[in-house]
Specification:
Elements lengths: L7 E7 L6 H11 L20 H6 L6 E7 L2 E7 L7 H10 L2 E7 L6 H12 L4 E6 L8 H12 L3 E3 L1 E5 L5 E6 L4 E6 L2 E5 L6 H16 L3 H8 L6 H13 L4 E5 L8 H11 L9 E5 L4 E4 L8 E10 L2 E10 L2 E2 L2 E5 L5 E4 L2 E5 L2 E5 L1 E2 L4 E5 L9 E3 L5 E3 L9 E7 L5 H14 L4 E5 L4 E6 L2 H15 L3 E5 L5 E3 L4 E9 L6 E11 L6 E4 L11 H11 L13 E9 L7 H15 L6 E14 L3 H10 L3 E7 L4 E9 L6 H9 L4 E11 L2 H16 L3
Parallel strand pairs: 1-3, 1-4, 4-5, 5-11, 6-11, 32-33
Antiparallel strand pairs: 2-3, 7-8, 8-9, 9-10, 12-13, 12-24, 14-15, 14-23, 15-22, 16-21, 17-18, 17-23, 19-20, 19-22, 25-27, 25-28, 26-27, 29-34, 30-31, 31-33, 34-36, 34-37, 35-36
C-alpha cells in the first residue's frame, strides 16, 4: 500500500547497546501484525538482527529499516546499533530520519548511549521522544530514570505514559497522563482499568508537570495555565505537537517489549504528535555549479533521492534511499549527481529486515531500496536530469583505530583486498590502505569490535581467514655529523671490468629530500657519471643503516674520485656511491626519528585528570586546554604516533565512551635512546623472519 507524505513517520531508534531497541521494534511489528511471532534477540530470530554476525554476537551491527503500518499511517522505524564501533550506521539513519526515539532502560541510570543519542539529535535539530524500556524487570525504576532525565535535560522532558506499580514494585499497567486513563495488557491486548486510588496523587504530579511543559509552548497557553484554567485535550495535543516540532518538549513513554505493555500508546504518540517529512525543513546541498542550494520536501517536485545505505549479499546489491522530492517509479532513469552518469531504477522494493517486497512506486518522504545500481554508492544523490543537485554528505566520524590485516595463509592478500573493497560498499566508516613503506595492509575503523566483525565477514562471505596485528610505525633516520668517505667499486671478470671510485661528504641537510651536489675540480669523476652517483644515493637512502627506515635531511656532496677510461660505467659509479653511503652513514651519528602527531581530545571536565595522566605516560606534551562551553574540554597535545595504537579503545575505557579525538601527523622528531634501541631490535627481528 502506498502512503502520502503527510501520513509517513521516519523515526530513528537510538540508545546504548542492550537498551532494548531491537526488542521494542520486534514488539511494534508483532502488535501491528507486521510479523506473526514475537522474536527475541537471545533466540536469534528477530526481524531486525538477521545477519549471521548479529545472531552470533546477539547485538545489532547494521542499520535496519522496518516499515510499520498502523492506523492509516506508515512508520519507518530505523533500528540502529548501540555499540559505538558501529556509529557509522547511526549516522546513516540520522541522515534520513525526521525524528528520533531514545530507548533508555529503567535501571542503571542515564547511560553514555543515551547522552550520545541526545547529542546526535541536538546537533541535527531533530524532534525526539524518550522510551523507558524494561519497566517490568526486577530493580527497574521508572521514577529514578525520569527524574535523572529531567535533571539533566530540563523541564522539556515531560511524562506522557507512566507505569503503575504495586507494593512489590512490580509494574502492572500504564497510565496515559494526557487522558488520565489506565491500561493493562491481557492476552496480548490492551484493556482499560481504573487508576488505582493510591496512584492518583503520583499521576496528578506527572499531569501537572506535563501541563507546565505544554504551557511553555505558547503565550496563550501560558496565560491560561497561570489563570488556573484547564487545557482541553485538543489543546494539550496541539501544545505537544508544537513543542516536539520546535524542540522545546520531549515526551517520555515507557513499557515492556516482552509483554507489549506501552507499545501501542507509543505508536499512538509517534503518529499523532511527531512531524511528517513535509513538516521538516528543506535539505541542504549543492547544485550542478557547486553553489549552495536546498531541496524542498515536495511530492510534486522533480524526483530526488538520497542513497543512505548499501547492502551486498549473495543475492546482489541493494541501495537504500529516501525520496526527498517527487516520486520514484519503476524504470525511472535518474542522474547520479556525483558521477554524472545515469542509473535505471529497475526493481524497487520496501525492505523489512531481509525481506523485500517489490513495488511500482515509492512516494515523497518514504524509504525504499533499489537493486543492482552500477556506480551508486552510499551518500550519493539520485535526481532528475533537469535539476542535478548533490545533497549534503553523511557525516561519518573519522576512523581512528588502525590494525594491520593479513591472511593466515600466504598468497591470499588479493582476496582480503577485494573482500574489504566489497565490505566498504556496505560500511563506508572504515578505510583500507596498502602501506608500501611498512609493507602492510592497514585497516582503520572505530574500534576493535568493528575490525573483528570485518574479519568474521571476510571468512564467512569470501572464504579467507584474516588476522590482525598492531600496525608498524613509519620511522625515519637521519645523521647528526659530517663525514667524508670513499666508495670504491672494482671488479675484474675477463674482458671489460667494472671500476668506479668516489669520495662523498655526507652531512645533515635542510630538506627532507636528499640534497645532492658536486664540488669536483679537474674532472676526476666525469660529469656524465654524476647522475649515476646521484641515482645510487637516492636508491640507498630508502634504507637506513640503523633499522632500515628511509633517511631524511641528508646532504651528499661528491668531492673527488677517479675513473678508468675503459672499465668505468654508470652502473659501476652507482655501486660505488652506495658503498660510500654504507661506509659513511654509520660514522655520521645516525639517529632514529619518530612521527609525532597533533592530538585533540574532547572530554567532559570530570575526566581531565585521567586524560592528562594518560598522555604523560604516552610521552605526550600537552599544548593547551580549551573549554567548549558545553561542559567539555578540548585538550591539545603532541604525542608520538608509536604510543597511539590503542588510544581509541583506551580513551573509550577511560571516559566510558564519552571522549572523542582527532589525530594527525605533524613532523618527525628524534627518538629517545631507550625507545630507539627497542625499535632497532624489532626491525632486526622482522628482517630475520624474512618479512
Amino acid at each position: 500500500m502506498s502512503y502520502s507524505a503527510q501520513n509517513i513517520r521516519n523515526v530513528c531508534l537510538l540508545g546504548h547497546g542492550g537498551s532494548g531497541k531491537t526488542s521494542l521494534a520486534e514488539s511494534v511489528l508483532f502488535l501491528t501484525n507486521g510479523t506473526d511471532r514475537l522474536g527475541k534477540v537471545a533466540d536469534g530470530n528477530t526481524v531486525s538482527d538477521f545477519d549471521a554476525e548479529e545472531i552470533k554476537r546477539q547485538i545489532s551491527i547494521s542499520l535496519t529499516a522496518l516499515p510499520v503500518e498502523y492506523g492509516g499511517y506508515k512508520l519507518n522505524l530505523l533500528d540502529t546499533p548501540g555499540y559505538f564501533d558501529f556509529a557509522g550506521e547511526t549516522a546513516e539513519a540520522l541522515q534520513v530520519a525526521d525524528a528520533g526515539l531514545i530507548v533508555c532502560p529503567a535501571k542503571g541510570g542515564i547511560s553514555v548511549g543515551t547522552e550520545k543519542a541526545w547529542k546526535y539529535l541536538q546537533e541535527r535539530k531533530l524532534p525526539r521522544a524518550i522510551y523507558i524500556s524494561k519497566t517490568d524487570e526486577e530493580n527497574g525504576d521508572f521514577n529514578a530514570v525520569f527524574h535523572a532525565l529531567r535533571e539533566k535535560y530540563g523541564n522539556a522532558v515531560c511524562p506522557v505514559i507512566v507505569p503503575i506499580w504495586n507494593a512489590d514494585k512490580r509494574v502492572t499497567g500504564i497510565v496515559d497522563v494526557v487522558r488520565r486513563k489506565a491500561f493493562e495488557v491481557k492476552n496480548g491486548k490492551r484493556v482499560e482499568i481504573d487508576v488505582p486510588a493510591d496512584k492518583v496523587g503520583a499521576i496528578d504530579e506527572f499531569y501537572n508537570a506535563l501541563m507546565e511543559t505544554v504551557a511553555e509552548t505558547s503565550e496563550e497557553y501560558m496565560e491560561k495555565f497561570f489563570s488556573g484554567e484547564a487545557f482541553t485535550y485538543e489543546e494539550i495535543v496541539s501544545g505537544l505537537r508544537k513543542g516536539i516540532r520546535d524542540l522545546s518538549l520531549v515526551p517520555v513513554y515507557c513499557g515492556s517489549a516482552v509483554t507489549g505493555l506501552g507499545t501501542l500508546p507509543l505508536l499512538d504518540g509517534l503518529v499523532s504528535l511527531f512531524p511528517s517529512p513535509l513538516e521538516r525543513p528543506a535539505v541542504p546541498g549543492t547544485d550542478a555549479a557547486g553553489e549552495p542550494t536546498e531541496v524542498a520536501i515536495d511530492p510534486n517536485g522533480p524526483a530526488c533521492a538520497l542513497v543512505f545505505k548499501t547492502v551486498s549479499d549473495q543475492y546482489g546489491k541493494f541501495s537504500f534511499f529516501k525520496v526527498i522530492s517527487g516520486c520514484i517509479t519503476t524504470d525511472l532513469v535518474m542522474t547520479n549527481a556525483r558521477t554524472g552518469g545515469t542509473e535505471k531504477m529497475g526493481h524497487i522494493f520496501f525492505m523489512k529486515g531481509k525481506k523485500s517486497t517489490e513495488v511500482k512506486e515509492i512516494c515523497c518522504g518514504d524509504i525504499g531500496a533499489v537493486a543492482k545500481l552500477n556506480e551508486t554508492k552510499t551518500g550519493d544523490t539520485l535526481c532528475d536530469s533537469k535539476r542535478v543537485v548533490s545533497l549534503a554528505p553523511i557525516p561519518f566520524a573519522e576512523p581512528c583505530y588502525s590494525m594491520a590485516i593479513f591472511p593466515k595463509v600466504k598468497g591470499q592478500e588479493d582476496k582480503i583486498s577485494s573482500g574489504l573493497q566489497r565490505l566498504s560498499e556496505e560500511d563506508p566508516s572504515f578505510s583500507v590502505v596498502n602501506n608500501g613503506e611498512t609493507k602492510q595492509m592497514v585497516v582503520t575503523g572505530a574500534g576493535d569490535i568493528q575490525l573483528d566483525v570485518l574479519c568474521s565477514k571476510l571468512k564467512n562471505r569470501f572464504g579467507v581467514d584474516a588476522e590482525l596485528q598492531p600496525a608498524r610505525v613509519a620511522y625515519r633516520e637521519k645523521i647528526r655529523k659530517k663525514v667524508k668517505v670513499q666508495g670504491r667499486h672494482k671488479k675484474q671478470s675477463g674482458g671489460h671490468g667494472q671500476f668506479g671510485d668516489v669520495w662523498i661528504e655526507f652531512e645533515p641537510g635542510d630538506t627532507e629530500e636528499l640534497t645532492f651536489t658536486e664540488n669536483i675540480f679537474g674532472g676526476s669523476v666525469p660529469k656524465n657519471f654524476h647522475p649515476a652517483v646521484e641515482k645510487g644515493l637516492r636508491e640507498s637512502v630508502q634504507r637506513g643503516v640503523l633499522a632500515g627506515y628511509p633517511v631524511v635531511f641528508l646532504k651528499a656532496t661528491l668531492v673527488d674520485g677517479s675513473y678508468h677510461p675503459v672499465d668505468s660505467s654508470e652502473m659501476a659509479f652507482k655501486t660505488a656511491a652506495s658503498l660510500a653511503y654504507k661506509a659513511g652513514l654509520p660514522q655520521a651519528g645516525p639517529v632514529l626519528l619518530e612521527p609525532i602527531g597533533s592530538l585533540k581530545v574532547t572530554v567532559p571536565d570530570s575526566y581531565m585528570g585521567d586524560i592528562i595522566g594518560d598522555l604523560n605516560k604516552r610521552r605526550g606534551r600537552v599544548m593547551g586546554m580549551n573549554p567548549t562551553g558545553t561542559g567539555d574540554q578540548v585538550v591539545e597535545a603532541e604525542v608520538p604516533m608509536a604510543e597511539m595504537g590503542s588510544y581509541a579503545i583506551d580513551l573509550r575505557s577511560m571516559t566510558q565512551g564519552r571522549g572523542s579525538f582527532s589525530f594527525n601527523f605533524v613532523r618527525y622528531e628524534e627518538t629517545p635512546p631507550a625507545i630507539q634501541q627497542k625499535v632497532i631490535e624489532d626491525a632486526k627481528a622482522t628482517m630475520d623472519q624474512g618479512e
